[in-house]
Amino acid sequence: MATPQRQPDEEEDEMDLIKILLPDNHGNGLTVRLANGVERQQVLQQYDLPSIKSMVVIRQLPSQGLSFQLWPAANTLVSLLEQHHRQPENSPLSQTLAAFSKSGGGHLKVLELGSGTGLVGIAAAAILGANVTVTDLPHVITNLQFNVDANAGLLTLHGGTVHVAALRWGDTGDVEAVGREFDIVVASDVVYHEHLFEPLLQTLRLLMGLDEKMVFVMAHLRRWKKDSVFFKRARKLFDVEVIHVDKPQVGSRIGVAVYRFLLKGSKVVVVDKK
Ligand SMILES: C[S@@+](CC[C@H](N)C(=O)[O-])C[C@H]1O[C@@H](n2cnc3c(N)ncnc32)[C@H](O)[C@@H]1O
User: Fold this and answer.
1) What φ, ψ does residue 33 adopt, rounded to 5°?
2) 196 Cα–ligand 1 center, Å
3) Measuring from atom 11 of ligand 1, which residue has the nearest CA?
4) Residues of the chain above pLDDT 70, percent
5) Record's InterPro entries (predicted)?
């Protein structure tokens, strides 16, 4: 399938979207000179992981676009990983992760789609001791790699690994290049532009279509009615279940929801907690 191209007006759309959705994320950074000599505003954020008494450092570059900022659903996934580490028996992720801990040894293999700053993938590697591949569009990779490198000490300490790769949704070759040897695919805040729904579903089909054991865990904040189009199409191929819903933020009616997607008709036994 052809690689989805960025539309000429997409960057402008992105900046509008950011102003609406992340209004507080501007104006509190430092100006830095990047490796290519260009000056950019940078926000360095320390993100606490109390369950493993550690901290992730994330560089955001707000003026570069939406791929360089931390989105609300990423925080939700990290909170669930934290909760799982503290109390696996009461965690919304327990059914999903228990299936893999029972299937015998080794590190959990995780693929993240649309990783942005990489917080979720880095936290998953550190908290679960997992082997994680974080992916995004080619122009996002330098910042993603910067953030992975900035957390090398944390990863060594906790035994997880993070590999960075370009993966454009809808691109068959990119999926072949990263492979399909994953237990879990994760993503946060990746459903927003309607023209990306089909490429994202195509990538999920390519990854999960032949492996009924692979699970997709996605955190999403529903903002627009059109988001339901994505879920309607996804339900033709996957059984989609809500495994967690956050309390809405002040001033909002809806909280971030976390969904689990399994290939329709999958015989994977989901362990019941009760
Ligand atoms: C709203 S941001 C969310 C970033 C991150 N997951 C988070 O929650 O902080 C959406 C991400 O999807 C990525 N993305 C958009 N279109 C893509 C495509 N066609 N292929 C791969 N990634 C894409 C963007 O670059 C961006 O990093």
Assistant:
1) -100, 120
2) 10
3) 114
4) 81
5) Methyltransf_16, SAM-dependent_MTases_sf
Cα gap 181→257, rounded to integer Å: 27
Q: Distance of alpha carbon 162 from its chain centroid, rounded?
A: 13
User: 81-125 pLDDT, tens per residue?
Assistant: 999 999 998 899 998 888 776 555 688 999 999 999 999 999 999
C-beta atoms surrounding 102 within 10 Å: 9
- pLDDT (mean) for 128-140: 97
In the structure encoding, which two tokens stand for residue 38, read together?
């260009």
Give residue 114 CA to ligand 1 midpoint distance, Å. 4
List, for residues 251-267, the tens digit of each pLDDT value. 888 999 999 999 997 76
Indicate which residue's Cα is closest to atom 7 of ligand 1. 71
If one residue of 56, 137, 142, 174 were mutated to test the ligand 1 pocket, choosing by the most ligand atoms within 8 A of its CB, it would be 137
Q: Is 121 in the pocket of ligand 1 (CB under 6 A)?
A: no
Distance of alpha carbon 39 from alpha carbon 33, whole angstroms: 4
Residue 20 alpha carbon to ligand 1 centre in Å: 17
Look at residues 189, 187, 192 and name the one whose alpha carbon lies nearest to residue 256: 189
Average of pLDDT values for 222-234?
Answer: 94
Cβ atoms < 10 Å from Cβ of 179:
12
Reported pTM: 0.88
